[in-house]
Amino acid sequence: MEKELTGPGLQGLVESLQTVFDVVNLMELEDGQAADQPEDGLRVQYEVQGGRIGCSLCRTIRAGGKTYQLHLSAPLAGNGLPEDRMSERERRLFREDLNHDFLSGVYNRHYLDTIFREKVDTWAAQGGQGALALVSLDGYAGLEADHGQPTVNQVLCYVANQWKKHYDQSDKKLVCRLDDAVFAVACSDYTGPQLEAEMRAIYDGMPTACITSVGMMSRVPFTLSIGCAGLEELENPCWDGLYQLSQKRLAAARTAGGDQVFHTEG
To answer: CA-to-CA distance for 151 and 222, rounded, in angstroms?
Structure first.
């Protein structure tokens, strides 16, 4: 693990990065947020912006006894997209790569925030149903400390595949990985209680451990916290309201000790 930076050291790092990246944002994390972040973890995402491929990096670091998230972004050099020279198959494969999580293979936040949220807002405007569940791997930081990141990555892939078996229709049911340890299950034609009941039944029958193959094979037990919400519960049904309510219920499940599905508080 790298030596913790001092305050001046952090400022020097930010200033040096500003000469390389177009965007350099530093945000201090609160204690509750910091507990869910792997120290010195690095996440990379590629996005299309203005016909060019941009690279976005997010790193969690410690400096002066505090935890920060450092966000960096810049276009890749010489990467104008010659889409007029791409075959239809090449264009489709490229878009699929942008919309999927590299580690687990399920959809990523980019797909959820751009394409699927528009579908949810359309359902809401037409008076249709839609529901969202946020799923968190309990004790992510502790699992990483005890078993190491490669082993935890196998657990995350295992969890993703468990849900993908039941929710894998890009226009109606899907699983997305949002960050290190949080997934989303989004469905049309479901109310909040319907999704809660179905996910509770699936979770009750889900294996409680993953057999990993990093080094010596080991059995890693895990539990999940899940928060569900439906459009029908909102005064003004929309994606943002649905996501915020799901976040609130995920937080309630975590506060209650994890290993459970929450639809209503209490």
So the answer is: 12
